UniProtKB/TrEMBL annotation:
Any GO molecular function: DNA binding
Pfam families: GerE, Response_reg
InterPro entries for this protein: CheY-like_superfamily, NreC/VraR/RcsB-like_REC, Sig_transdc_resp-reg_C-effctor, Sig_transdc_resp-reg_receiver, Tscrpt_reg_LuxR_C, WalR-like, WH-like_DNA-bd_sf
Name recorded for this polypeptide: DNA-binding response regulator
Modified residues (4-aspartylphosphate): D59
Domain of life the protein comes from: Bacteria
Domain HTH luxR-type: 147-212
UniProt organism field: Lentzea cavernae
Residue stretches making up the Response regulatory domain: 8-124
Keywords of the record: DNA-binding, Phosphoprotein, Transcription, Transcription regulation
Amino acid sequence: MTDPACTRVLLVDGSQLITEGLRISLHRTHCFRVVGIAHTVADAARSLRGTPVDLVVTDFDVPGAGPLRTVRDTAQYRPGAPVVVLSNADSPSWARAALDAGAVAYLLKTSPVAELLPLIAAAVRGAPATIDARVGSLARLPSRMPPPASLGRLSAREFDVLAEMAKGMDNARIAQRLFISNDTVKTHVKAILRKLGARDRAHAVAMVLGESSEAFVTT
């Protein structure tokens, strides 16, 4: 018999393999009960409107809209329900964006389930914001990011490129690190500048990291 005191969880991820694995793992833990699974932003919004939930566990970039849309939808439809973001990217920029959008934790999908479950449980108990220890240092990131609407226009790959730009990488090195062509990097950079309303690369990075533009100009 299902315990009504269990935490009701909505799982949101484009991969059925991921959601099914999480569902099985959470059902083995007495304090969790998965009440909904969504594979797109639209599905997640419908579930949030129609199903009472106590916790949302979502991918960073769910198919159907910009990154973190489900985090903001949760705040609208289920205020007070904590959101844990799972991601494949150990990106400080992504982590900060997730927390600024309202998530209570940014965890890596590559973490063992035995490590993830206690962190998810801690989020339900109201623990301080949590970022996976393997994510790069956040020392250079400010307490505030641009408004979520601005960041939400960036695709997941554009976030990748922006994070590399913040490390001082030029186009050639970004292409090498992300396994894409130089022309593709240039296309992403142009899109980032346009979506953020930035004058140039340094300005875009300064907008996100809150530092002076000169600190990020690559020599």
